[in-house]
Amino acid sequence: MLTTDARRFYAAALLILAIAGFQVATIRSGQDWGDDFAMYILHARNIAQGRDYAATGYIYNPDYPSLGPVTYPPVFPLLLSPI
Q: Residue 53: what are its φ and ψ, rounded to 5°?
């Protein structure tokens, strides 16, 4: 019979293996993450340093607006700014 600690260890190991198996089974190629993460970091830096929020150096192209907006909403950059 297994002790309580051994049961917990095996239960945790089984859970980790199940999660890893699910992650491996659902990997898909072709995910385009884009470059939004860089804009969020630049916005967070501007918030932390007290600069203008939109002063990221991004040159907006009105002829190709689907590429990205002028600025992003400040919620996620506000969460990143203390870091």
A: -60, -40
- Please give the tally of structural domains in the chain: 1
pTM above 0.90, yes or no: no
Contact between residue 36 and residue 77 where contact means Cβ atoms under 8 Å apart: no
* Residue 64 lies inside a defined structural domain of this protein: yes
Positive or negative torsion for Cα 64, 70, 76, 77: positive
DSSP-assigned letter for residue 71:
S
pLDDT in tens, the chain (83 residues): 678 899 999 999 999 999 999 999 988 877 666 667 888 889 999 999 999 998 998 888 889 888 888 888 889 899 989 98
